[in-house]
Prior knowledge:
Strand order of the largest sheet: 1-11-9-7-4-5-6
Helix content: 25-40%
Amino acid sequence: MSLKVLNRPFARHILTKLRAKDTDQVNFRKNLVRLGRLLGYEVADTLSYVETEVETPVGRSKGIVIDSLDRVVIISVLRAATPLVEGLLKAFPSAKQGVVVARRREKESNSPPEKMDVDIYYSKIPKINPEDIVIVADPMLATASTMLKVLDLIYSQGSAKTVYAVCVIASRFGVERLLSSNYHVNIFTVEIDAELNNKGYIVPGLGDAGDRAFG
């Protein structure tokens, strides 16, 4: 299990625009797509590869082939992850896709919740094989309750070679909870925020990603 924070100026530039409350719906979606592409390339750089040679128009050159690109399965947590997955598909155009429609039962408490009740309304996940690379895309990793629920569904289908949780912003609590779970998962995010509020939202975060992306 591992944690990768994409702490690069360009990624943070896009994230800054996402956070801004005056960013409109269209540009919010476009920026989610951009970050999805950047995060996808970061994940791709961790995949196994083999050395090869290729014939150029004027000679031969040594190179590499990432041999697991055709084994990628992307699971989209609807609806908020749709633009993020659009970006991920730029890095993994041949990926199989699955969807999970999930919703947190939001309620306000006297302190930040350590977990949330999550309802799964629909799921369609391809068969998971031991050689597969599974990417679960959800823009926000707050309490990790939704992510853990989705991982329950994935592992009920079979055991993958590697599982990635790809998000834009994570809370410190959500990261710690996910990494201490029974699942072997690698977290890729652009930023980790320190706090959750009494409704389980990340602070400062960026608000409700689904509402901001789709109105």
